[in-house]
Each structure stands twice: as C-alpha cells, then as structure tokens.
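thread: overnight batch results

M.L. [08:02]
morning all. the overnight job finished for the chain we discussed friday. pasting input first so we're all looking at the same thing
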Amino acid sequence: MAAAGPVEIFNQPIVLTIVTLLPIMNPFSTAPLFVSLTADYDEKRRNREARLACLYAFGLLVTFLLLGAAIIDFFRISVPGLRVAGGLIISMIGFKMLFPGLATASTASGEKDDPDIAFTPIAMPSLAGPGSISVVLTAAAQIRNLRPENWEVIYAGVIVGMLVTLVISFLVLRAAAAFVKVMGATGIDAMTRIFGFLLIAIGMQFLLTGISDFYGIAHR
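M.L. [08:03]
and the structure it wrote out:
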C-alpha cells in the first residue's frame, strides 16, 4: 500500500474533525438557546453575537489543541473538573432564564442587565463545551503519539476542520434568528423558560457526570 501523500495527510484530519466535532458541538441544539437569549436584539447585534460566539469557540478549541495538555498539567485541571465547571455555569444561566424575576431584581438594585452572551453561554459551554474540549485534547495526544513525523500538517488540518465546523455553526445560528419574528414575544418567553429548565437539567447532568468521572479516575 502506497504511503499517504501530503494532500491526503492534510485532508483526512479536516474531514475527521468535522465528522467528529460537529455532532458533539451540535449547533442545532444551541440555536434555540441563542434565539431565546437574543430575542430583544436587533438583527445586526444578533448576527454580531453569533459571529463572536463562533470566533470565541474557535479560539478556545485551537488553544486547547495547541496548549491544552500544558494548561491542564500546569493548573492540574482534569476533564471531570471541566465538566463540573461547565455544569455550574449552565445551571446558573438556566436559573436566570427560568426565573427572569431574579434578573429584574438585579437591574432594580442598580446592576446593568445587558450581558454579552457570546462567550458565555454560547461559545462556552454550548459550542466549545467539555465534550468538544475532550475531543480536542484526545486528538492532540493521538497526533503526537501516532504520527510524530507529520504532526504539523495534521494539526493544520485539524484547525481547518475546526474552522469549517464553526462556520457551519455560525450559519445555523444566523438562520435560527428567523424564528424570533415567527414566535413573537409570548412564544419567546415560553421558550426561554423551557430552555432555562432544560439548561438546569443539562447542567446537573454535567455536574453529576464530572463527579462520577472524578471518583472513577480516583479509584483506579
């Protein structure tokens, strides 16, 4: 069997990255949350938030691809720890969505209630969550171990694959904004509360999974 050429070595990780990362990132599941959080934004700001969220997610994933192992070793962070942190963040946002009176009370007390939702919760932990980061960290370790002679080319292919995946995510989020006009204020309020509850449940699942994984690793 002939050895793979440079083009094939570059193209394979692009396809594998998209096929592996897109289902885990799942922008279609993030789209309703994005719609709920940006219901009061105009189209220009909504598109800006979608663009920033995808750029933030891309930056996070590239950082963990290139420096993830060093960061985790330096701060002694584990993947279960990332899951627990992500679960707490998601749950906190879910409570604010389910009980909007809490946000109103904060505004009345003098706090500014105009959050930038691009980084949290859209980029992290929705798009670049613990699952996506775990995939990137695993891929980085395998590239170094399995293909040390071509790791630069493969890393470049993985980064291009990430970029394509985030472009797809951006297009999904932009298309989802059309639902704002269709659903109206009452529908958006109902969706916000429903997804607030779902976010709390997802956050608790992240939390429990992280704790379970931590104790599973500790007892090996």
